[in-house]
Amino acid sequence: MSAGADGPVRVLIVDDHPAVRASLRSFLEAHGEVVVAEAGDLREAVAAALAERPDVVLMDVRLPDGSGVEAARRIRAAGSDARVLMLTVLGDEEALLAALLAGAAGYIVKQVAPGHLIRWIHAAARGERMLDARALVEVLRRWGRGERNGARAALSAREGRLLRLLAEGRTDPEIARDLGVEADEVDRLVRGLCAKLGVGGPPGSGPRAGAVRGPRRPRSPGASA
Prior knowledge:
The structure is a single chain. The protein is α/β, with parallel strands linked by helices. It folds into two domains: 10-130, Response regulator (Rossmann fold, 3-Layer(aba) Sandwich), CATH 3.40.50; 134-197. It is 44% helix and 13% strand. The chain contains nine helices and seven strands, in the order E-H-E-H-E-E-E-H-E-H-E-H-H-H-H-H. Strand 4 (62-63) and strand 5 (66-67) form a beta hairpin. It is globular. The N and C termini lie close together (5 Å).
């Protein structure tokens, strides 16, 4: 698998609406990208990611048989190094947090300007992470204090710290050192955090995306994964 700074990126499109997939395919191909496959649900997404080895997966966060978050986890747990960009609607705080907790490369609102979509796909293929800092800070503030409508209990200081470390893209060993726990304890803490926030699927639903991967480093033009 390879993606250069200016070369075509191999993309897997995951959305349960055929019209959305067709529109994205037409747009991406018109801009020189290569759409290697499409998928309409979680099962198809995982199978296509492993069979086609895309550079980037455009993943709808809500799928008919599960969530894009769980699909991302399964893809990463199976050994794929595809970068997942979550597709969501404007103002979907749960989707933003889900993308964060899944270790996704970023999230993209479906109302994004076309030019931005191309730039973000290439940035993701290079190993960069795109999370809107201002939106993330506000979401962390509201969820961390239990201010969200119907929110669970406010996060503890440790849980708030864990959430911020995840937002910074820290690896599990880095998180473990910061929190003073064993590395294999981090996944349990993250699953507990997901349950408390009500995002990302139930605890124990599968390995967390990015739980064992190393630090994110931009790939050089033409570098192979």
